[in-house]
Amino acid sequence: MKDIKEEVEQWKTSNIQVFWSEIAHGDHLLQIYENDKVFLDTLEGFAGSGFLAGDSVIVIATSSHLGLLHQRLQKQGFDLDHLIETQRYIGLNAEDQFSKFMINNSPDEKLFFDFVYHLLNSVKKDGRKVLVFGELVAMLLEQHNYNATVQLEDLWHQLVHKNSFTLYCAYPKSGLKQNASESIARICESHHTLIDGKPRPSTEICYRAAV
Fold first, then answer.
1. pLDDT in tens, 63-111
2. CA 84, CA 66: separation in Å to the nearest integer?
3. What gap in Å lies between CA 211 and CA 208, rounded to an integer?
């Protein structure tokens, strides 16, 4: 069995670092994934590469995905407690965040901007770049709240342009129903780059193309 330390070093020197380093800040990325393993491999690479580059990382995900991500990052040797204490990492349970900006099942623009700006200001120290992953929109789509899904993607897109952080969004392929085709088209239009959802180790580079 391969030594854990060897696995960590392989991950830290892998070509996934090259992939994420080439993503421009101000880019809005979309992944439509086949299964949770594919998604978590990508999210692990996204967060871990940010930490290694000295960036700040914000992850807003379901409690299940957040817990699994933390397990993976700790296995790779990242000290999450230290990253939190030094304001380089914020991990939020997505289910608990909707009450901060949703009114009558729709996102309120001012409340949402205030919510995001508070997070950005919390980690924008010493000129660090900021990487953000958000699963809020995918959860709205899963709830069949298509209007709110499109509205929230549009608000995220505005913030990316104004603040030049990197935003990564992911949707399970199983949640993209035919009756939501118009919303799905709008979602795709709100992103710059598509990351494929094919299975591969978190150490391998992801294929990307313009949306």
1. 999 999 999 999 989 999 999 999 999 999 999 999 999 999 999 999 9
2. 14
3. 9
Would the pTM count as exceeding 0.85? no
- Crossing angle between the packed helical segments 181-189 and 146-163, to the nearest 10 degrees: 0
For 4-8+23-210, CATH number out of 3.30.420.310, 3.40.630.190, 3.40.50.300, 1.10.10.10 equals 3.40.50.300
Tell me the torsion sign for CA atoms 137, 30, 124, 62.
Answer: positive
Residue 1: both structure tokens together = 């069995």
**Angle of the 36-52 helix axis to the 4-12 helix axis, nearest 10:** 70
Q: Are strands 89-93 and 130-134 parallel, antiparallel or unpaired?
A: unpaired
